[in-house]
Amino acid sequence: MGVQKNADTGLDASANNGIGYLCSLRYLVDIGVLVENVALSLKDAELFLKDHGRHYSFPIEPFCAIGLKDEDGLHGVALLGCLDSETAQISHIYVDGSFNGYSLLYGCCVRALMALGYKRLILK
C-alpha cells in the first residue's frame, strides 16, 4: 500500500493520529482569502520548518503536526508532543506572517489536544 495523500493538500496524510477532522476548520481572513488548518505528516512539517524556521531544532518526540494553508500553499506548522499522560506540549510553531496565523494554529492545537484527552497544555 502506497503513501496516503490528503485530498485537499496533496501532502502525506499518514501519522496524523486521527486529528484531521479537528483541523478542517476554514477561515476567511485578509480580504477574503480562505485559510484552513490541515493535518500534516511529521515529515512534511519538518521539511517546512527546515526551510522557514531559523530557530528550529527537533523538539521532544512529536506525535502529530498541524499546518495552516491557503491556495498559495502552506504558511505555518505546529508540532505537538506529550510530556506525560495529562500534559501536552506545543513543541514548535512557526507562521510565515499570514494574518492571524499563530492564533489559528494555537486554537486548532488546543482543540485537538483537549479532544485527545490532555488536561494541561504548555508552550515551549
CATH topology: Aminopeptidase
Helicity level = 10-25%
In total, how many domains does the architecture comprise?
1
Structural class of the helix and strand makeup?
Answer: alpha+beta
Which strand order does the major sheet show? 1-2-3-4-5-6
Q: Looking at this structure, what is the CATH superfamily?
A: Gcn5-related N-acetyltransferase (GNAT)
- Write the element-wise H/E pattern from the N-terminal end onward: EEHEEEHE
Proportion of beta-strand residues:
35-45%
Largest sheet: 6 strands, mixed
Classified by CATH, the class is Alpha Beta
Number of helices, counting only DSSP H or I runs of 4 residues or more: 2
Q: Which CATH-level-2 architecture?
A: 3-Layer(aba) Sandwich
Radius of gyration: 14 Å
Counted beta strands: 6
Overall 3D geometry?
globular
Arithmetic mean pLDDT: 76
Uncertain segments of ≥5 residues (pLDDT<50)?
1-18, 20-24
Distance between the termini: 36 Å
Provide an overview of this structure:
It is a single chain. Helices cover 21% and strands 35% of the residues. Mean pLDDT is 76; it is low at 1-18 and 20-24. α2 (101-115) links the parallel β5 and β6 (120-123). The protein is of the alpha+beta class. The longest helix has 15 residues, at 101-115. The protein has a single domain, classed as Gcn5-related N-acetyltransferase (GNAT) (Aminopeptidase, 3-Layer(aba) Sandwich). Strands 1-2-3-4-5-6 form a 6-stranded mixed beta sheet, sandwiched between helices. The radius of gyration is 14 Å and the shape is globular.
